[in-house]
Amino acid sequence: MNNGAMLVRAGWLIDGTGTEPRRQVALTIEGGMVTQVAPWEATPRGLPTQDLGEFFVLPGLINMHAHTILPGDGTSFADWMALPDELLLLQAHTNALAALHSGVTTIRDCGGKGRLMFRLRDAIRAGIVAGPRFVLSGRPLTITGGHCRYFGGEVDGADAMRQAARQLLAEGADFIKIMAAGGGTVGTYAEFPTFDLDELTAAVREAHRIGKLASCHCIATESISLALDAGADHIEHCSFMAPDRLWRYDESIARRVAASGVYVTPTLQVGADSMIKMKERHALGIATPEEAQIVVETPNRDDDTIANARSLHELGVPLVAGNDAGWRYTRFDTLYRELQLLVAAGLTSLEAIGAATGRAAAACQLADRIGTLVPGRVADLIGVQHDPTSDLAALAAPALVLQGGRVIVDRR
Length: 412
Hints:
Elements: E1 5-13, E2 22-30, E3 33-39, E4 49-59, E5 61-66, H1 77-81, H2 85-101, E6 104-109, H3 116-125, E7 133-136, H4 158-171, E8 175-179, H5 197-209, E9 213-220, H6 221-230, E10 234-241, H7 251-260, E11 263-265, H8 268-284, H9 289-297, H10 301-314, H11 335-344, H12 349-355, H13 358-363, E12 381-384, E13 400-403, E14 406-410
Parallel strand pairs: 1-4, 5-6, 6-7, 8-9, 9-10, 10-11
Antiparallel strand pairs: 1-2, 2-3, 4-12, 12-13, 13-14
């Protein structure tokens, strides 16, 4: 936090609450917190001022799904996880800085190896290194041989799930992440659920017992139903993959998702980034057999994924923005692309911004701290030169990034 007082003069303010941009608004910041939001002419005089009179100001972005210890450069998961922990931690810090400098002031990390992400968060909080705020799950819980098993969270049976969840919460996890289906890890089955209902319920209840949240990675359609039955608060991906590995939207289950009020992070960008690379590799004749099969047999996969998110949005499911940064080819400085894809799925640009600010903060139980630029919130904000409600690419390289009232990036 910057303990001094300052003023930020905004040409336009998008405050993250969903209201339309306001002209010529100034934010008074004291002790790293927003204390006043008022018209230019009604603000204190004589304070140090960041003049963004020609810029759009909005809250620091929140990436709701990332794996910060992964490289996001296409390196195979198994090969990357064979590296020493020290290198993984250094990569995580590099990724964290890339995110922060791109305007992402908070990362909800959905799975890292062992306790590495807790240690990085400790270092940031202690001021040893710079980085965004982290909302952490630690190692995700997965069945023996399951998706992301390399992170060290393999567990089987309800009693073991209960114990593993308690251990993560004792280590400082903000939420429990459960791999309720297989995924992109070689040797797993994304089209089928993993844990039984009693196993899922045991972990979810441990989180709820102390007021924490639980989230389920759901690719298989059946895993979505099980996550809802177990009382999960959040669903990652929500992809409706049928046992034949085809995406097949299930209206009845989607209506259950909507009725439950759970948040969904559709992670549209990671698939789109991956498809671009796979098509490039296929054209060059260097695609793996699996990549070639995906390109040839499911060339419209991205369209199907966007259509799936659109259907959920139309039912009123609260979507939040997370791009699965670190996984495959998705980088940490490109969250704006996830927002663009949310717009392709039917959200307005202002709603997409809300999915990465105010709504995202609420999904993390942090709405009273971050995500909006109103009095009483931490002064995490970015300034961009062009109107992001007209073109979300304006968010690609913020001119100014403030974290807790402290200038992190100034490209003006």
